[in-house]
Amino acid sequence: GKGGYDHYMLKEIHEQPAALRQTLRGRADPATGDIDLEDFPAGTFADVDRVQFVACGTSYHAGLVGAQYLSAGGVPAQTFLASEYATGQPPVDDNTLVVGVTQSGETADTLSALRQANTSGATTLAVTNVVGSTAARECDDALFIRAGPEIGVAATKTFSSQVVSLALLAERLVRDVTGTRTDDTRERLGALADLPGHVQQILDYSSARRVAEEYRDSDAYFFIGRGSVRPVALEGALKFKEISYEHAEGFAAGELKHGPLALVTSETPVFAVFTGRNDEKTLGNVKEAEARGAPVVAVASDGQDAVHQYADEVLTIPDTHPDVAGVLANVQLQLVSYHAADLLERAIDKPRNLAKSVTVE
Ligand code: M6R
Known about the structure:
By secondary structure, the chain is α/β, with parallel strands linked by helices. The protein has helices spanning 8-14, 16-24, 57-72, 82-88, 108-119, 134-138, 157-178, 185-205, 208-214, 230-244, 279-290, 305-310, 325-343, and strands spanning 28-29, 34-35, 50-55, 77-81, 96-102, 123-128, 141-144, 221-225, 248-252, 270-273, 296-300, 313-316. 44% of the residues lie in helices and 15% in strands. The strands form 3 sheets. Strands 4-3-5-6-7 form a 5-stranded parallel β-sheet, with helices on both faces. The protein is globular. The model has no long low-confidence stretch (mean pLDDT 96). The structure holds 5-amino-5-deoxy-1-O-phosphono-D-mannitol (M6R). 5-amino-5-deoxy-1-O-phosphono-D-mannitol is lined by residues 56-59, 102-104, 107, 110, 153-155, 238-239, 242, 357-358. Keywords: Aminotransferase, Cytoplasm, Glutamine amidotransferase, Repeat, Transferase. Residues 41-180, 211-351 form the SIS domain. It catalyses: D-fructose 6-phosphate + L-glutamine = D-glucosamine 6-phosphate + L-glutamate.
């Protein structure tokens, strides 16, 4: 059942601290920097020379984060929409690792991209929540995200657990491929270990419902972020449109002025995500929106004074490593979407026209 919550989505948002503890359990030790990933001991990926992620929807956004982790660590990586993978025909050889990121393990587009990769000679790996799923069975190997069952059509806790799983996988890959650890391994692993507690803090004090109420009659909702939180901006918008049926779009912060700014008015709130890295630039983009009269809702930690000065509202997140801050920011945006949809009395757990797992291409 819904365990006292009005919707599975809200229950699953609140399950994130527990889900993340499960995802992390026994896999990373911040004190030593050691990584222990079941089927993937040190050296597993020594022959890999590039990584391609294939995924859809929310899982695609997690894949975008995964590729950033790898690229930053010196491993060439790209993320493809699974439905575009066949058309894109990216080069694949024996040393290519193709990672399907799929909560259900049953998404037809993702399965089809993985099958194509397999036929082309790549090694395939499923990052999935469902043991025994088609992706887990068909791929050469599987990494389970251990988020627990997700009933709501909107993917929430599985996104968080996917990103954390991909962070751990990236640590393993970077070490195997480059022979060195990521520069700040211990800080990173420490930030991952802190995530369950940090998410709990957000759940305890979030003002997302008040923000959703304040902007409930807007024309459209825009989400911006750069670098590690560009995928979070995209995900914020996907979740918002999926369950509220309101128009929402996510953009790279720097792209706002290259077109979308024409849509910005006093009736289009802009949600801007900050991580503590490259914030001045995003702040510049916020000012472009503000100059057109748009209300600005920042998602940022308390210490970011300049952000607080410019934003109309701030959804605060605990201070953490910039690469991990996106998971926290995303929880605030999940709550905004949930409350916006709840105020509109939408069918939150079963939005119109959508299915939990999409088994047609
Ligand atoms: O099961 P999968 O992770 O492969 O599903 C992919 C998408 O269909 C899924 O993430 C979808 O975008 C979510 N319903 C969004 O909340």
